[in-house]
């Protein structure tokens, strides 16, 4: 029995002295104080180097639980303006392993984040009375503008999942939650430093350990330079005030996003500081969902803007030539099926069909492409068609450097076999795809990218918000051309049709003096009022900008889409709006659409 007791004691001694580091941790904590040095987060500039996001100093109140015994909690609570119940709740949260993984009573823990300057001044004066508590200098994000919330994103406190997935973070740290703050978190956050300080037996700081020989300075985060034009972004948000919709503008020659508007939006200042959580819940509960970035997350029928992709496909596949003419008797009429169209001359050739947005022309082309005679089966024909759509950037995420991008939807053979049964469908069954209705869904970003691809005559760059990152090259994914399956010569024909639409067709209300604008309207059918859509680029040759506009329940494409797109293009190319255009912009900014209740 004595031998057993001796062995137990030996085992316990080994556990305490060799295998456990509790005493070493305690001893080190008594002798050293490792003070984390937090880096300044990288700044964010627009394409003209105008500062959009910067940092301001802020303070957290930290506590070392092993040292804060004997503090007058009532005095402490009065000093920083909280109740005793709040004090207890915060202390319990710190000690809860589910909420604070890796908690140690010997290491600093965050008690109160981002205390106001007024409260901090009072706390600083009485700090000597609150043993175990001390201030920690941090920074908080500030915005020089109220626009671009969906692009810029925000910064919030790390979650337990964030801590588990990356050893860099500890409880109380901040991380990018939305927008480019999230996408470029590793660039923006920098690297923490550490200052090792000596303490005496009473825990008082006595100075730097070995004169700071083992200190490590913080490395500030990298600055980001965006492709966003802040003035253009502001104009876009003004034009969509009181409406649900999006505007996306891309520089075709680079793929840089010039503006990316999702309406309704919100002031990015709402998601900073101690009220962030409360404001986030309020935004999340808004029935019009201002937190959703509709420009990349929304899935919409593209309407007649999609006809340009169909004309390109039919030309490349030899289904049509530029001279091919199809009849339009107020619509496509075939085997008892009618797809309506507005009145215009008939028969129509390709250029005129784009100019007038003829439904019948593109339905006939689609019907002749999805045929057994040409490819051997409807399934093979449809798969060939789908391959063209994918090559144009549809059906999958484009890869923009923002979180949450949707893929849209381009159906496949399996989808139709499931719905209609194998051999239960033909080109006639799915004819609505030809005019951007049916099952086809695109994001507004994909519609704008279609415009950029036509502007480039057959290729596009992956759209990206960030133009450059300080200290490193931009990822090659954003500098690589993506070619479609269509030859450049056919894009010239489509561009001519889009130019004709502005000169004397469905886009004539968007004409800009001195600028060769090419455009295509879309009126996307909806269960309620139709959506107003526009896609275009300018100038016709050596284009500088491609734009998509999508206004939910806005009616005809010419009602909202065309004039808004025209104003965006004029602002970017000329650097300002003419007095007449400014008056027009003010008029559109004042026009709201009744969605049942008001939209901010």
Write a concise synopsis of the structure shown.
With 600 residues, the chain is an alpha+beta fold.
Low-confidence stretches at least 5 residues in length (pLDDT < 50)? Answer: 19-27
Any idea what the radius of gyration is? 31 Å
Overall pLDDT score: 90
Distance between the termini: 81 Å
| Helix-and-strand structural type | alpha+beta
Number of strands: 20
CATH class of the largest domain: Alpha Beta
Coarse morphology: elongated
CATH-level-2 architecture of the largest domain: 3-Layer(aba) Sandwich
What composes the largest sheet?
6 strands, mixed
The CATH topology annotation of the largest domain reads as Beta-lactamase
Beta-strand level of the residues, as a percent range?
15-25%
How many domains, as an integer? 2
CATH superfamily of the largest domain: DD-peptidase/beta-lactamase superfamily
Please give the share of residues in helix: 25-40%
Q: Given the structure, what is the number of helices?
A: 22
């Amino acid at each position: 029995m004595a031998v057993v007791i001796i062995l137990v004691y030996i085992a316990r001694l080994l556990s305490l002295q060799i295998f456990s580091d509790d005493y070493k941790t305690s001893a080190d904590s008594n002798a050293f104080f490792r003070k984390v040095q937090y880096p300044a987060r990288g700044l964010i500039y627009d394409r003209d180097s105008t500062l959009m996001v910067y940092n301001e100093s802020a303070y957290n109140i930290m506590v070392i639980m092993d040292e804060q015994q004997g503090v007058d909690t009532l005095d402490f609570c009065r000093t920083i303006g909280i109740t005793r119940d709040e004090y207890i709740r915060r202390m319990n949260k710190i000690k809860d392993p589910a909420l604070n993984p890796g908690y140690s009573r010997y290491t600093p823990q965050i008690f109160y984040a981002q205390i106001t300057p007024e409260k901090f001044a009072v706390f600083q004066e009485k700090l000597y009375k609150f043993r175990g508590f001390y201030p920690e200098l941090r920074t908080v994000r500030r915005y020089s503008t109220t626009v671009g919330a969906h692009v810029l994103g925000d910064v919030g406190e790390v979650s337990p999942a964030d801590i588990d997935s990356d050893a860099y973070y500890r409880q109380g740290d901040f991380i990018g939650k939305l927008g480019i703050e999230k996408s470029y978190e590793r660039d923006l956050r920098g690297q923490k430093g550490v200052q090792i300080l000596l303490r005496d037996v009473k825990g008082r700081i006595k100075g730097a350990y070995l004169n700071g020989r083992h200190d490590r300075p913080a490395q500030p985060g990298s600055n980001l330079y965006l492709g966003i034009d802040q003035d253009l972004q502001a104009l876009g948000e003004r034009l969509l005030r009181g409406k649900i919709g999006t505007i996306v503008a891309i520089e075709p020659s680079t793929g840089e996003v010039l503006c990316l508007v999702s309406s309704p939006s919100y002031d990015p200042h709402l998601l900073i500081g101690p009220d962030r959580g409360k404001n986030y819940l309020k935004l999340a509960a808004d029935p019009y969902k201002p937190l959703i970035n509709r420009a990349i997350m929304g899935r919409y029928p593209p309407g007649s803007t999609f006809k340009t992709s169909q004309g390109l496909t039919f030309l490349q596949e030899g289904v049509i030539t530029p001279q091919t003419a199809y009849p339009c008797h107020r619509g496509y009429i075939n085997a008892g099926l009618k797809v309506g169209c507005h009145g215009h001359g008939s028969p129509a050739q390709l250029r005129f069909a784009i100019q007038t947005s003829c439904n019948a022309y593109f339905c006939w082309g689609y019907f002749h492409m999805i045929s057994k005679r040409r490819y051997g089966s409807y399934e093979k024909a449809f798969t060939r068609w789908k391959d063209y759509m994918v090559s144009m950037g549809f059906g999958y995420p484009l890869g923009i450097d923002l979180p949450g991008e949707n893929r849209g939807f381009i159906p496949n053979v399996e989808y139709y076999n499931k719905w209609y049964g194998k051999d239960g469908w033909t080109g006639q069954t799915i004819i609505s795809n030809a005019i951007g209705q049916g099952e086809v869904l695109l994001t507004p970003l994909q519609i704008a990218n279609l415009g950029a691809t036509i502007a480039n005559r057959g290729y596009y760059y992956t759209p990206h918000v960030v133009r450059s990152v300080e200290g490193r090259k931009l990822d090659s994914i954003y500098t690589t051309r993506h070619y479609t399956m269509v030859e450049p010569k056919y894009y010239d024909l489509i561009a001519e049709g889009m130019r004709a639409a502005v000169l004397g067709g469905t886009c004539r209300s968007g004409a800009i003096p001195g600028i060769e604008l090419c455009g295509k309207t879309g009126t996307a059918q909806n269960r309620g009022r139709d959506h107003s859509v526009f896609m275009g680029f300018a100038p016709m040759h050596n284009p500088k900008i491609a734009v998509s506009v999508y206004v939910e329940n806005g009616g005809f494409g010419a009602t909202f889409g065309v004039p808004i797109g025209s104003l965006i293009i004029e602002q970017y190319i000329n650097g300002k709006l003419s007095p007449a255009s400014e008056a027009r912009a003010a008029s559109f900014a004042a026009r709201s659409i009744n969605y049942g209740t008001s939209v901010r």
